[in-house]
Design a protein that fits this description.
- About 25% of the residues lie in helices and about 15% in strands.
- It is of the alpha+beta class.
- A 12-stranded antiparallel beta barrel has the order 1-2-3-4-5-8-9-10-11-12-13-14. Strands 6-7 form a two-stranded antiparallel sheet.
- About 15% of the residues have low confidence.
């Protein structure tokens, strides 16, 4: 602060905690800073604020009163035709970049007038400067004449004298600016500049935060609208701070180049794969085709909330987004075809694997069937071998008569104790353990199964074939175990 008695405006954030709003506080004669103006910028999120800069100065106590505003639309660079840059930018031309404007217009209201601020460079110090002019007479003179009422306002008249002001930077490395009134030429013809009056300092912009009005020099100005001059100095200082000393992309609300990151397509691919797996896990392999259900009609948005493009940057963003969406659709189509091909390949492989397993299982079933068949046939053969039917009796006419019968000594045959007597078993062999076996095929078994009750002698037995009479030497025969077959 140069002097606390001078009127000083302070640029502070707004009390409503809105980022694009600010407050202008005024301190005079050492008083506490009180709100004097409200500074508003358009919402950066709104489509109408893209690729432009706008600021308006309102009354702090009456928000409907607008003193002045600035709208600045930059120019843009021409698109490059270099194929290398287009290839590096993904097949589209690089985006046009904003060009810092060399002038801007301040629109004042009540009375309405436009103040053009032109940027230039100082000849002596090569520092930037901004020049603007204010008319000395801004209001129409009161008159009862109807002719005077039909005349144009003094602001629009070219014959109205004007005062020339300029903002100049104090040094190349300094952040302070000084607004001064350019001196007038004392020569009547205005040919010589050496007779020009010196510049008069009007205000000072310190550290891009404080604007101090040099009140003693303001009293020397011959101007009808000092309030308009104050608004013009405030708005011009704010534009110089934000446009010419700030970040150009943030100032003009230039959106970033739309680029697809590496992690953006993964969730889509992963979700597509996950949905595909869930569908293949839940549905059977050979599911019956379901009748197609009518899809709901697509809701086409006919009204675009974004205004039509008015600058090359907006048109480039539309073209770039169209190209990006086209590539995205092509990429998704390739991924879909690849996924379908992989799914068909997986299902084919799974079917082949199931067919191979079915063949192996059928081979095992055939082997087991053959083994059981052979086992059954062996059991059948064994059963037929054990269940041989009795042979029919032979006719007696063919037998030889008077066959000699051998006599064996009486008494059982003594066998060693270690030898187990052979006990024939089977459905066709019967007899007691202490009796000798006899043939069942020739009908002589029944007479040999019982001993005579008297004398302990062995009863006479028939001969070999059981058809002839008994031998006289029956008492000397020996009981012999006969064959189970013969």
């Amino acid at each position: 602060m140069i002097d606390e008695n001078l009127p000083t405006f302070y640029l502070r954030p707004s009390s409503d905690n809105i980022k694009h709003h600010a407050s202008v506080l005024l301190s005079h004669y050492g008083s506490e800073a009180a709100p004097a103006y409200a500074l508003r910028h358009p919402d950066p999120a709104s489509p109408g604020s893209k690729n432009r800069y706008a600021v308006a100065l309102y009354d702090s106590y009456h928000p409907d009163i607008l003193y002045g505003e600035v709208l600045l639309i930059p120019e843009w660079t021409q698109p490059s035709l270099s194929q290398e840059e287009i290839r590096r930018n993904g097949g589209v031309p690089p985006p046009p970049q904003p060009i810092l404007p060399s002038s801007f217009v301040i629109q004042l209201y009540n009375p309405d007038q436009q103040i053009v601020v032109q940027q230039g460079v100082s000849k002596w110090s090569a520092t930037p400067q901004w020049v603007f002019e204010m008319p000395q007479q801004s209001f129409r003179q009161p008159s009862v004449s109807s002719i005077d009422r039909t005349q144009s306002d003094p602001i629009a008249s070219e014959t109205t004298p004007k005062l020339r002001f300029k903002w100049k930077k104090e040094g190349k490395l300094s952040k302070d600016y000084v607004c001064s009134l350019s001196g007038k030429n004392t020569n009547p013809d205005g040919s010589k500049k050496k007779n020009r009056e010196p510049d008069i300092t009007i205000s000072m912009f310190k550290h891009l935060r404080e604007i101090t009005m040099y009140e003693p020099n303001l009293m020397r100005l011959d101007i009808e609208d000092p309030k308009g001059l104050e608004v013009v100095m405030l708005l011009s200082a704010i534009v110089i701070r934000e446009v010419y000393n700030g970040n150009m992309r943030e100032t003009f609300n230039v959106s970033d180049v739309p680029r697809r990151s590496s992690g953006e397509a993964a969730p889509r691919k992963n979700s597509y794969e996950r949905a595909r797996r869930q569908r293949t896990d839940v549905l059977p392999l050979q599911a019956a085709p379901q009748p197609s259900q009518p899809r709901p009609p697509l809701q086409v948005q006919t009204v675009d909330p974004r205004p039509p493009p008015t600058d090359p940057r907006s048109q480039w963003e539309i073209d770039a987004e169209t190209a990006r969406l086209k590539k995205e659709v092509e990429r998704e189509e390739r991924e879909r075809r690849h996924a379908e091909h992989a799914e068909r390949k997986r299902i084919k492989k799974m079917l082949e694997e199931e067919e191979r397993r079915a063949q192996l299982k059928q081979i095992e079933i055939d082997k087991e069937t053959e083994r059981l068949r052979r086992r059954f046939e062996r059991g059948k053969r064994r059963e037929r071998k054990n269940n041989i039917p009795p042979m029919p009796a032979r006719p007696t006419a063919n037998l030889r008569p008077n066959l000699p019968v051998m006599n064996y000594p009486q008494g059982p045959i003594q066998r060693p104790h270690s030898a187990n007597p052979y006990r024939p078993t089977g459905p066709y062999l019967q007899g007691q353990a202490n009796n000798a076996s006899s043939s069942v095929f020739f009908g002589g078994g029944s007479s040999m199964n019982h001993r005579p009750p008297t004398g302990g002698k062995v009863s006479s037995k028939p001969n070999f074939f059981g058809l002839l009479g008994h031998s006289d030497h029956s008492g000397q025969r020996l009981n012999k175990k006969q064959s189970a077959v013969f």
